[in-house]
């Protein structure tokens, strides 16, 4: 599965590098490799560059979109709303963040998704998304 073909965004705003694992309608694990050459890292706290939190949230959202699309939803069939995010530690160049997306509950065309950002199996981000 190639994320770039499935998402509405285009480079440089595709914030998922690869899909590692997925089970249709159940879960998805994607990865984003953070590099010092990413233009949005270079000016974000120049003395100690960190990956912007909003871009972590966008990577989590794009991972959720990939799960929905890979599960047979069309882009026009869903809308991700009511985003809630919590950050637990900064992400630095050289880190590889894994986004693990799981359904919390699912009804026809509705439900809630939780995306957890992991760095070396440590939770660095948690996002809750509602699907309408």
UniProtKB/TrEMBL annotation:
Which EC numbers characterise this protein's activity in its record?
4.2.1.59
Which Pfam families does its entry note? FabA
Gene3D superfamilies for this protein = Hotdog Thioesterase
What the record says about family reads: Belongs to the thioester dehydratase family. FabZ subfamily.
Q: What is the lineage of its organism?
A: Bacteria, Bacillati, Bacillota, Bacilli, Bacillales
InterPro entries (UniProt xref): FabA_FabZ, HotDog_dom_sf
Keywords on record: Lyase
Query: What domain of life is recorded for the organism?
Result: Bacteria
Single Gene Ontology MF annotation:
(3R)-hydroxyacyl-[acyl-carrier-protein] dehydratase activity
List the protein's name: 3-hydroxyacyl-[acyl-carrier-protein] dehydratase
């Amino acid at each position: 599965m190639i994320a770039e073909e499935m998402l509405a965004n285009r480079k440089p705003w595709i914030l998922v590098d690869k899909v590692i694992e997925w089970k249709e309608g159940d879960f998805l694990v994607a990865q984003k490799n953070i590099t010092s050459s990413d233009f949005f890292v270079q000016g974000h706290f120049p003395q100690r560059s960190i990956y912007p939190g909003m871009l972590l949230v966008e990577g989590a959202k794009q991972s959720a979109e990939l799960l929905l699309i890979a599960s047979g939803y069309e882009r026009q069939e869903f809308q991700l709303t009511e985003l809630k995010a919590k950050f637990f530690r900064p992400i630095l160049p050289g880190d590889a963040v894994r986004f693990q997306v799981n359904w919390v509950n699912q009804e026809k065309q509705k439900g809630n998704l939780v995306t957890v950002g992991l760095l070396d199996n440590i939770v660095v981000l948690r996002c809750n998304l509602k699907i309408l």
